[in-house]
Specification:
The protein is of the alpha+beta class and 295 residues long. It is 27% helix and 24% strand.
Length: 295
């Protein structure tokens, strides 16, 4: 089954979702934002009544009196203590809403190494808005490339202030929504994480060999959504009334780490394709050229 894949570099059919400016100091660059994620590739399901295939609605019920509640009877409450709420009225929320200025204000430029990957959230493509913006846009991208820096700023979207990061990517720029650092938990709090574990040097040496043997370019990897493709195959088979055949997973045998490393290295080396010597017409022609030069 042929699965259509989204090409992130194809801007012809992309529609901008926001337009404004990037501003740092006195420099302003008109830009447009585009969704970087292809959402049409996701598969969604409807909840149905098994008896008559009727769609299941969403009933809002109070957990105290079990009565169904209308939208106009629902208020927003913040639980400041156990079962203790302060009610926030719509006019209270209006007071904290910020007016969108359509400006991404850059506060600073930081080193790439300083931003933890877990802080990255929603990605967007940022493109120049009109020919007048092309030169300034290209200048910012080149500057970020050469200095190995990222631009961190703020923008008001949907009446909420967001911290964003501008980063060079291929021929253009990307903008990422950022999580706040205080939202990120500490990795040191993971249970059973031994920060002072003693590593066996012989095992480490073999592990390094295995890593080197398995190293390849990221572009060489065939990163397909195999779950999506398998699910679509099952859906198409059920539509066509075909029998669905499942594959039973076999449990991997438990072996000691040294044996596992040695066998893994041997397997990885066997999968590396050997270099093919020049043969045929091209090889013969190269040989003739070499003989003529030596003569």
């Amino acid at each position: 089954m042929q699965i259509r894949r989204f090409n992130p570099l194809n801007f012809e059919n992309m529609r901008s979702i926001w337009k404004g400016h990037i501003r740092f100091s006195l420099v302003t660059i008109p830009i447009r934002l585009y969704n970087a994620i292809e959402t049409s590739q996701s598969i969604s399901f409807r909840q149905l009544h098994k008896k008559d295939m009727g769609p299941i609605g969403y009933d809002k019920k109070c957990k105290t009196c079990l009565e169904s509640v209308k939208s106009e009877d629902i208020v927003k409450g913040y639980e400041y203590a156990s079962d203790q709420f302060v009610i926030m009225e719509p006019e209270d929320l209006q007071k904290v809403r910020l007016k969108s200025t359509k400006i991404i204000d850059i506060e600073a430029f930081v080193s790439k190494d300083e931003v933890h990957p877990a802080l990255f959230d929603t990605p967007y493509f940022a493109g120049p808005d009109g020919e007048v913006a092309t030169k300034a846009y290209g200048l910012l991208k080149s500057c970020l490339d050469q200095t190995n820096r990222l631009a961190v700023g703020r923008v008001v979207l949907r009446e909420k202030e967001e911290v964003v990061l501008i980063a060079p990517s291929g021929p253009g720029l990307m903008m990422y929504m950022l999580r706040y650092p205080h939202e990120l938990r500490s990795i040191e709090n993971i249970p059973q994480l031994d920060l002072h574990a003693k590593i066996d040097e012989a095992q480490l040496k073999l592990a390094n060999v295995l890593v080197e043997t398995m190293t390849k370019s990221f572009s060489q990897l065939e990163l397909k959504d195999r779950y999506y493709e398998s699910l679509m195959e099952i859906i198409q088979a059920k539509i066509a009334g075909k029998e669905i055949v499942s594959v039973k997973e076999e449990e991997a045998p438990v072996i000691d780490i040294m044996t596992a490393l040695k066998e893994s290295i041997s397997q990885a080396k066997s999968e590396i394709k050997p270099m093919v010597k020049a043969t045929g017409t091209a090889g013969k022609q190269a040989a003739k050229t070499s003989k003529k030069k030596s003569a």
